[in-house]
C-alpha cells in the first residue's frame, strides 16, 4: 500500500483547489503525475512561467523543511538546493518515459 502524505488543510477547504503534482519514489525510480495544461485557457498567463513559480515555491518549502529537520540555516539550505538544482538541470539525462493522459 502506498504511503500518501496528508493533504494540506487549505486544499481540503477550498472548493476551487486543484492538485498540480504527485511525486513518488517506487520500484527503484522516480514517478510523477503533473497537471499540465491547467493554465492553457487563462488569457495572459504563460504556463511555463506558472510552473517555474510552482517549482520555485516547492523549492522554498523543501528548504524550510530541511532547515527545520536538520537545524541548518534556511538560506544556506536554499542556496545549496539552488546550486544542486542548476547542476541537475544541466546534466544530460535520458528522456522521461510516459506521456500525457486525460
Describe the protein in words.
By secondary structure, the chain is an alpha+beta fold. It has one domain (9-90). The chain is 45% helix and 12% strand. It has helices at residues 9-13, 47-70, 74-90, and strands at residues 21-26, 29-34. A hairpin with a 2-residue loop joins strand 1 and strand 2 (29-34). The longest helix is centred in the middle third of the chain and has 24 residues, at 47-70. The radius of gyration is 16 Å and the shape is globular.
Summary of the model, kept short:
The protein is an alpha+beta fold and 102 residues long. Helix content is 45%, strand content 12%.
Helix/strand layout:
Blueprint: H1 9-13, E1 21-26, E2 29-34, H2 47-70, H3 74-90
Antiparallel strand pairs: 1-2
Helix pairs in contact: 2-3
Q: Trace the largest sheet across and list its strands.
A: 1-2
Largest sheet: 2 strands, antiparallel
The count of strands amounts to 2
Radius of gyration over C-alpha positions, nearest whole angstrom: 16 Å
Number of helices: 3
Summarize this structure as a short list of keywords or feature phrases.
DUF5076 domain-containing protein, alpha+beta, DUF5076, single chain, two-stranded antiparallel ribbon, 102 residues
